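Re: your question from the hallway

Yes, I did run it. Sequences:
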Amino acid sequence: MRAGRDPSEIVLVAAAKTVPPEKVRAAIEAGVNVIGENYVQETKRVKAQIDLPVKWHLIGHLQSNKVKQAVHLFDVVETIDRQSLVKEFQQYASLADKRLELLVQVNLSGELSKSGVKPDEVLPLIETIAHSENLFCSGLMTLPPFFDEPERARHYFSELRELRDRLQPIVPGNVRLQELSMGMSGDFAVAIEEGATLVRIGTALFGPRGAQGS
Ligand SMILES: *Cc1c(COP(=O)(O)O)cnc(C)c1O
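Structure:
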């Protein structure tokens, strides 16, 4: 509200890597509707213990040999970063008779340690997704470098929004890039000011990772 946004436009994705299932369940019971997971194996383990109506987003890098499992585990995959991954998702989503929502992960910093495609590789990926019967692209995701000072992340967030605004008129006709997944515990307020529709928050909800038992 402080940013002049309609709160119903912004979805809290509870980033639950390393968080034990009972804490994830408590978050859902407190009103969380979307769980973000980084790893396929961990998701399988947590999901097996949580039978609640909630959506599961993959927010971590995916190896190709895990695509088949990911199709069954996730409602949304936020980390599409290569053409081969789209081809594999189409193959397995078709076999599973499922329609899967994808976001393209964009690397705006050029950091080699971060996944994601360069801005000029986003359009071809969206086109491949749009031409895949069982897939659709709903937007973009980014993970900026870590800064102690959240203001320093702002230009990455505005860049993602501007990229979306430039792409929207030139993507295939039925594609609507309404989602911008950006912002974490330290910088979500800035991300919301810059147009985030999905904020991926772990520490601020669950406490520091590795300290769950305490
Ligand atoms: C862990 C993680 C988050 C959440 O980070 P916090 O700083 O704990 O809020 C968000 N996005 C991705 C991709 C993550 O891996």
